[in-house]
Cell shape-determining protein MreB
Amino acid sequence: MLDRLWSILSHDIGVDLGTANTVVHVKGMGVVIREPSVVARHLKTKEILAIGTEAKKMTGKTPENIEVVRPLRDGVIADFDAAEAMLKYYIKEVQQMMGGLKASLGRPKVVVGIPSGVTEVERRAVHEATVNAGARQAFLIEEPMAAAIGAGLPVMEPTGQMVVDIGGGTSEIGVISLGGLVLNRSLRIAGDELTEAVINFARLKYNLLLGDATAEQVKIAVGSAYPVKSESEGKPLSMVVRGRSLENGLPKSQQINSVELREALASVVRQILNEIALVIEETPPELVSDILERGMILAGGGSLLRGIDKLIAEETGMPVWVTEKPMEAVVRGCGMVLENEKLLRQVRVVRGLD
Ligand code: ADP
Ligand code: MG
């Protein structure tokens, strides 16, 4: 009881700075914020106008003097100022949620999950931004490690664990043993490219122009990587999408089904599969046999694409599991690290700043 009370009072924070979504976890409370990693600002003055959902709504609808940016593109920090603004905004928001407690109990400890492709300079910058945002101490953890911890894998054991995190901008594939990443590849092909494949498909097959948001909805509603059950009964999934005709510029509706869409997504899915195969090839045989026995874990929003687990299992001959609430695996891992001193000591911290 006292423990729990202290957990709530100390409000240590885990932040997953994802390419598509930023998720914030507060010790003792769970996930409290989940918002798109999007920032809207004034083009000239760089004044921040909106962050998160509100900023995402502006995508494709802004007047000339406003720009909408995704600070983390392709698994690297593409726009540092915007990333810092986002980080600060969410840390402040948690502190506000906690109200007056902050004043009496001091500043939180913060663990930030960052893409494994981030450079040393960027690590320092994220660290500094977190401290500037009000953290007492800031720790950085590589996302594949955080995802593995969040998925409940026993990362400290001397056995091989494999995790594939398919996010918006990157697919991160990691092999973990004894608390460290033995192998790690970051592929800049993931959910965004699947969405782009939907746009290209609609344009080429139906002369239909779709916006990003619509294409993403189509992908989620009828996209798949493996034949859907109802197809064998002659009933593929389908939906009617609205876009603009490229022939006459007028609004146009078109029915799209799961069979044609799977074909459209196949080449992107294939690239992710190839990367997984490469990592398996490079993994030492002892660890491969561990993974064969225990299976590989999928995390990230891309792992929700229908049947992607089945396809990976079939192609690699390994058991494959999608972790519970895959879009929260990284932040859950950050939260678990905050509650476990031993793990926290293992986390790679930027040297010279802490
Ligand atoms: P990141 O860690 O890069 O922020 P996330 O793990 O939050 O990314 O995943 C975001 C990606 O997952 C987006 O490309 C989104 O379209 C995709 N996604 C979310 N839900 C689904 C779903 N049900 N089916 C397919 N893709 C999905
Ligand atoms: Mg992620």
Summary: The pocket of magnesium ion (ligand 2) is lined by residues 16, 18, 143, 165, 167, 300, 330 (CB under 6 Å). Residues 258-282 form the longest helix (25 residues). The chain is about 40% helix and 25% strand.
